[in-house]
Each structure stands twice: as C-alpha cells, then as structure tokens.
Amino acid sequence: MDVQEKSAIDKSAIAPRGASGGADTIAAVSSGSGGAVAVLRLSGPQAGAVLVALAGRLPEPRRAHLARLRHPTSGEVLDQGLALWFPGPRSATGEDMAELQIHGGRAVVAAVLGAVLDVPGLRPAEAGEFTRRAFLNGRIDLTEAEGLADLIGAQTEAQRRLAFAHAFGHLGQRVEEWRRRLIRAMALIEAGIDFADEDDVPAGARALARPEVEALHAELTAALADRRGALVREGALIAIAGLPNAGKSSLINALAQRDIAIVSDEPGTTRDLLEVALDLDGHKATLVDTAGLREAESKVEAEGIRRARARMAEADLVLWVHDVSAGPAPEAAPSLETERPLWLVANKIDRAGPAASAPAAWPVRSFAISAAGGQGLEELTRALGGFIATRAEGEHPALIRARHRASAGEADSHLTLALEQWERLDDELLAEELRLAARALGRMTGVIGVEDLLDVVFREFCIGK
Ligand SMILES: Nc1nc2c(ncn2[C@@H]2O[C@H](COP(=O)(O)OP(=O)(O)OP(=O)(O)O)[C@@H](O)[C@H]2O)c(=O)[nH]1
C-alpha cells in the first residue's frame, strides 16, 4: 500500500454519534513509558477528523492501516505507524475512537501527541477518563471499571485472575441477577397491595415472595462471609506462632530473604507484632510474627501476647514453629483459642537428628525445616503458595472491594430485617425494605445514583485508561 496515498474522506463516517455527541475529544498516551511502541488513543466526536488529518484517510473500522503521520498544519512527517478507527457506539468508550501505534521514543511521542493536541477542541485526557466515558455511555458497569483498574494494577497471578473476571462483568452480572430477583419479589408483594380487595391475591403473593427473599439473603450472607476478595487483594494473613526461641523471627527472615525481624538467643525478644508483606510463589501474603506465647513477665510482654492472639484469630493460616532441638513436638496441638487452619513447622532440623523431624502426633500438615540453614524452605514456600491459590479459587466472583462489601452488607441487613419482621410488617413496609436492598445492590454496579462515587472509582486510574 502506498502510505502517502490519500483517499476521499467519508465525512459521514466521522460525524459525532452515540450517546456522547458534542463531548470534548480527548487524547492520551495509553502505553507505559520506555517501550519500543507507544499507543496513543483518542475518544470523542473529533477522533475521526483528527485521524484523517494525521494519517491522510480514515482506515476501515477496526483494521490496522499503515500510515505516514503528518502534522495537520505544517504537513511535516512525524512518524510512520499503525492507525486504527473504532467508530462509536461499538467502541471501548462508546464514542468514536482512534488509535495510533507509533514509535515509542520520547521525541516521537511528544511530536505526535503535540500535533494531535494542537487541533482545536482536542484536550489531554484526565486520569481514568476513557473508562469513565465507557461507564457513562453504558459500555461497562462500575464493577467492570474497578476490575479494569485492578487488572492494570495486578501484581500476582491470583490478582490477575480475579480482576479479569470482574473486568469482564462476572460480578456485575451476579449483582444484577440478585437485583432482578429482588425486584420480582417486590413486585409480588406490591401485587398484594394493588389487589388487596381481591381475596385470593395477597396471602399467596407474600408466600411466593418469601422463599425467594430467603434464598437471596442466604446468597448475600455467603458472599459477605467469603474472604477471597481480601485474600487476593491484600494477600493471605499468615500468623507465625510458637514458643519463645522456636525460630519464628528467623523463619520470617528466611521467607522474606532479608533481615526484618530481630533474631536473638534471648527468649521473648519479639515483643510486638511484626508484619511483612511478601510474594510467596506468586501469591501475596502478609506474615505476622507473633510474640512468643507464654506466661508474660512484664506488662509490655502481656500486651504483645494479647495482640498476637487477636491477630491469630484473623489469620488465614497459623504456622506453629516448634524447636526440634529442644525435643519432639508436643503430643497435642497447642491450644490457640482459635479455629484457624494450622500447620506445624519443625525448625532447627540442622541441630537435631532425623528422628526429631518425624511428623507430629497431631493431625496437621507438617514441615521439617531449618530457618538458619535453609533446608525445607522451598517446599514450605511452595506449599504456602498452593494454600493461597486454592483459597483464592471459587465458583462465584468475590466481593473484592470495601465498596462492594458495604453495598452487599446494606442489602443484607434490609433483607434480614424484612425476614425477621415478615409477619408483622404491612405490605408497603415490607416492599420498602426490599426496595432499599435493591437500591444498595444497584449502587454496586452503578445503575442507581452513583454520581458521588464516580470520582472515588475513577481516581485510581492512570492517564490514558
Ligand atoms: N541452629 C539453628 N538455629 C536457629 C534456627 N532458627 C533459629 N535459630 C536460632 O534460634 C534463636 C531464636 O531464634 P528467633 O528467630 O529469634 O526465635 P523467635 O521464635 O522469634 O523468638 P522469640 O522472639 O523469643 O519469640 C536464634 O539464636 C536463632 O539464630 C535453625 O534453623 N537452626
């Protein structure tokens, strides 16, 4: 193809269209810095005209077209690259969009972006503005927008998977399904209000609605109890517990591969909680070194022990470190006053014979390691990664953000109240509780008044997304 060739401009193809006709046209570099290729995106009514001004013609929709890119007024060739044309409303933002794939050098990017922004009416995009327009034009719901932000920010494999499911609507669909079922139940109860004079409707309508509300309540409660979201977003919380001097701090240091905790021979050195965030075999985790659990000899130590117990009660997993050089593991599991999953880590195998690392009598998964020498650490790290991966998997999309949990929690409490008061509330009040629950769910996907939320959701995006 002759890249300098200019074809007739099809004006009808570049006219503003879709829900956002009349909005500003925005442009930004959407790729990260330093790459060989940079991606420049434009969205808005003038996107097509700008593409024609730079590339000489409007490419076939959604097909890459190799073009010399010229400054629209001086005609100077700025670069050669690929031009793409996505007419609205079937584009990412729902508006007319253009994309230029150009060489990634700073001067090239500055020249092409500068030429684009020189066109009157064009302006640089704000952070998250492309995604915000996609939401406002109904291309995505709020949970999908958040999923996109999470996908861009995903650091571990589990985060990528969960974010991908959200970005492509899995959570949004589930929440919308809850909302539709609620509205159906509400309609049944309202049918009772409308036809209150007709004897056969009211009792039957309420009775029909109740099992549906009960089922919804159970699903919401289960979704709220599911900690997968926090697990993937914030990482698994792993408490390292054990008697003083067992080697807890040494184990954390070894796993973190740097010296964070204070290691000393003196029992009871770890007086406070010490938390370390790390990547365990591709999974995010926070390790908490808990103060040696024993009879406190001082007030400070007592406080450390109290906090250690509290943190252990929240942990996804407790690793009980036992010093095998001091003797075999106790017959029974230590009483931790918590029901958290527990693994036994027999430490200091370098100091004790192989007999000392025999599995403990208590029925838990056990590992034999040397925090100082490194033996067994690789196996333990892999097992911890596997543990987090298994926990992060699930059939349903999780409520990952505090915002999701707040909406679901609000809906859940309206349903709890409705079910508790089912026989006492009159039809209007019962329907109102269900309406409030449906509204709370609607705020999660953005179908219900969310203006105040938009800045919060889109703030965390980068420019060009
Ligand atoms: N030989 C050997 N010594 C170890 C090993 N792990 C830890 N130690 C030593 O055991 C002592 C106690 O280790 P720490 O990591 O401070 O133990 P802790 O459980 O955090 O102790 P507290 O802070 O008292 O609760 C230190 O002298 C460590 O060097 C190991 O695998 N082999």
TrEMBL record:
Keyword Methyltransferase included in the entry's annotation: no
Residues annotated as binding Mg(2+): 249, 270
EC numbers on record: 3.6.-.-
Predominant location: cytoplasm
Subcellular locations according to the entry: Cytoplasm
Binding-site residues for (6S)-5-formyl-5,6,7,8-tetrahydrofolate, renumbered to this chain: 41, 99, 139, 465
Keywords carried by this UniProt record: Cytoplasm, GTP-binding, Hydrolase, Magnesium, Metal-binding, Nucleotide-binding, Potassium, tRNA processing
PROSITE patterns: G_TRME
Region (Disordered): 1-22
One MF term in the entry's GO annotations: hydrolase activity
Bound cofactor: record note: Binds 1 potassium ion per subunit.
Named cofactor requirement(s): K(+)
Pfam family, one: MnmE_helical
Family matches, as NCBIfam families: mnmE_trmE_thdF, PRK05291.1-3, small_GTP
Its biological purpose: Exhibits a very high intrinsic GTPase hydrolysis rate. Involved in the addition of a carboxymethylaminomethyl (cmnm) group at the wobble position (U34) of certain tRNAs, forming tRNA-cmnm(5)s(2)U34.
Description of how the protein assembles with itself and partners: Homodimer. Heterotetramer of two MnmE and two MnmG subunits.
Protein name: tRNA modification GTPase MnmE
